[in-house]
Structure of Phosphoenolpyruvate-protein phosphotransferase:
Amino acid sequence: AERDIGLDWNGSGSTADGHPVAVLANVGSVTDAQGAVEAEAQGVGLFRTEFCYLVAADEPDVGTQRDVYAEVLTPFAGKPVVVRTLDAGADKPLSFLAPGTEPNPALGVRGVRVSFDRVGVLDRQLAAIAAAAADSGAEVSVMAPMISTASEAAWFAERARAAGIPRVGVMVEVPAAALSIRDILEAVDFVSIGTNDLAQYVFAADRMLGTLAGLNDPWQPALLRLIAMIGRAGAEFGKPVGVCGEAAADPWLARVLVGLGVTSLSMVATAVPTVGSALAEYSSADYRRAAEAALAAPDPTRAREAVHAALG
Ligand code: PEP
Ligand code: MG
């Protein structure tokens, strides 16, 4: 039944002039993976592995991890899946890794930062992902959360490649990473913008606080200007730039993101048919015009209005 909201979504994202844009799903469980298949997502742009372990008391061993990952990956045999290494800490404490006792957890030892002192946990997870990739036949990439510098990106890429994973990327969700994007793109095969955290850190506004939702609005021109920088750098290096934050699920904003140079969009599965259909309605040139209009706007409301006007 859910599929029928898909309008004319045919499982293959592109603009009206045939420029491909992969429309992917965010998943955190086997159930989510089934939902992504039903929505005809072209693959998975973000597998949040920490969601598998929110209630785990101890680190799951390699075999246990491999089994869970393989179950999520198998429905995507032959399709791209980006597996994110554990993003523990902040709003997602894991009792065996980042128990959540810091005064400022969003600014603390979270994401890839946890790995620097616990490198064995990362290496065991990478081994499990590599094994699950081989079992499933999915085209697996890995990426690290909360990368802040190019040297962190290079450090992660080296470990992931040593584990036998051929495609390695990082999330861009810390403003410093966006500002170092060219150096980061030297070190990795692709990047994926996490607009939820990037907005939080750009605006110094806790993403969990409803009272600050206006600052965390992904239509904020300052956020879009950073995304434009990343899109330009990706085009220059010929490397993919995804968006996997909630912003990608808004069909009008998805059009703007494509105009900013984003090459894939990953979202909650239920949004896949709507966004996939929405992208097919206008051309790449239209999206570039819409993006210019959004970048020039003084605030989110006027950015939305300007984009609606630009696309008429
Ligand atoms: C993000 O920050 O936008 C993101 C996709 O990661 P998460 O929501 O899991 O922090
Ligand atoms: Mg994030």
About this structure: Residues 145, 173, 194, 196-197 surround magnesium ion (ligand 2) (CB under 6 Å). The first strand starts at residue 22 and ends at 27.
